[in-house]
Structure formats: C-alpha cells, structure tokens
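Propose amino acids for all 35 sites.
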C-alpha cells in the first residue's frame, strides 16, 4: 500500500499542495494555500 508522511514528502512536491486519498496522491496547485 502506498503511504508516506506529508512532511517527508514535502521535498518531492515542494511548492505544490497535495491531498492523499486512499492509494492515490492528488497534487493541487493552490497559490492561496501555503504548506
């Protein structure tokens, strides 16, 4: 199963916001939402 820590994954997504749902990761670009 695909799982990881959001803080550990920050380097992978960098400025982009993301949401984890079930076994998928959906990258969301939202300039109004700072990580």
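Proposal:
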């Amino acid at each position: 199963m695909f799982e990881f820590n959001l803080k550990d994954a920050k380097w992978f997504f960098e400025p982009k916001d993301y949401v984890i749902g079930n076994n998928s990761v959906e990258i969301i670009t939202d300039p109004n939402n700072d990580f």
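The first strand starts at residue 17 and ends at 21. The CA atoms of residues 21 and 35 lie 18 Å apart.
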